[in-house]
Amino acid sequence: MSLSNAFFAIIRRDLLLALRRRAEVANPLLFFILVITLFPLGIGAQPHLLQAIAPGIIWVSALLAAMLSLDSLFRSDFDDGSLEQILLSPHPASVLVLAKIIAHWLVTGLPLLIVAPLLAIFLGMPTHSLGILLLTLLLGTPVLSLIGAIGVALTVGLRRGGMILSLLVLPLYVPVLIFASNAVEIAGSGLPVDAQINILISILIMSFVLAPWPTAAALKMSIT
Amino acid sequence: MPTEPTIQLQAFNLSCIRDDRVLFEDLSFVLSAGQVLLLEGKNGSGKTSLLRILCGFREADTGQIKWRGDDLDDSEYYVDMAYVGHLDGVKKELTVLENLKVSLALGQAGQYSIQQALAKVHLAHFDDALVQTLSAGQKRRLSLARLLITKNSLWILDEPFTSLDIHGIATIESLMTEHCAQGGMIILTSHHDIDLPEVDVQRIRLS
């Protein structure tokens, strides 16, 4: 009985489940691509305006895509009783929950990183800021999953938790949005962005260490 | 193998109040090695609530539960217990084998290997079948197989016989008898009358 065994078994299980439910997993990614492609159509032939707001467009879309994907984090486990079994395990629930969050990020956050450069070029973002865009997404999207997990854990027991979830979680996403899109914007004009990146790193480390506990506690409350 | 039955689980003055309605109060019992505790009572009498309190999913409104003399959180309780509830707790998109491997990783390896456990519950050739292709009774037997592959002395079962046929019920009853003969304990609710002639069965009637 080892904790790392249990940890990797949960990650493996969730990745396998994602593989068997591809349509559900592809939803947030498709949403991300669709929203971003709609902006040029809505704004019209103003490449400079588009270029100026590109970091914001990409980050807001990533935020909404992450929100959209959150419900799948605990929903099916809650419905079929697997969550009870996970929480009854002698291993610390927070570590097992962290495994679920990591698997969730691998399935819903990582694909955004892969398509984001393509969409950034499509919006006319200068190529020298692509690296920073990827870096902010790499640091920021795990935070979205980690913070979102607390919100889903609190609302998974409610019948219509969707609206409450967005109200709970979106305000907490704001710092990530501000620092990440600001970093990409500043990088576009060739200035250093160390400060923003450092803040994003600290937000990531903080939520990585602190988010699993309230998530596990909230899940225990939700299954009563 | 204990020769003297030793008290393992103690509950003192438990009560549960739900929406201003008292489901039960001043409920006390002790459970010793090799015993079965059968909770009886009509729907809504608090049987499932009591089981969920024993699982630590919710707090009793009053009272205490001790496992081998210690509070549940301070003891090895969660290593020693296993729960099969209303929900099967298996993923329908995974195969039988994949499901059991996850359960095994979450607990401590027990007496039987996965293959032996599947043979015990008559699912021997289903290891690569997706759970969504199984019938309700087969799913139930799969979730009961979980009890066999992990090491645990206390089984908490909520209506374990639901959707099982006569043959399935007999199988589970023989597994229960075997578990108790080895010093295990079982707390269960059931609408069916259980037939465990060799086992010391306590009954608590909730009203």
Give a written overview of the molecule.
Chain A has one domain (about 5-220). In chain A, about 85% of the residues lie in helices and about 0% in strands. Chain A has helices spanning about 5-20, 20-45, 45-70, 75-80, 80-90, 95-110, 110-120, 130-155, 160-190, 195-210, 210-220. In chain A, helix 8 (about 130-155) packs parallel to helix 10 and helix 9 (about 160-190) runs antiparallel to helix 10 (about 195-210). Chain B has about 210 residues and is an alpha/beta fold. Chain B has one domain (about 5-205): Rossmann fold, CATH 3.40.50. Helix content of chain B is about 30%, strand content about 30%. Chain B has six helices and nine strands. Chain B has helices at about 45-55, 75-80, 95-105, 115-120, 135-150, 165-180, and strands at about 5-20, 20-30, 35-40, 60-65, 70, 80-85, 155-160, 185-190, 200-205. The mean pLDDT of chain B is about 90. Chains A and B meet through helix 1, helix 4 and helix 5 of A and strand 6 and helix 3 of B.
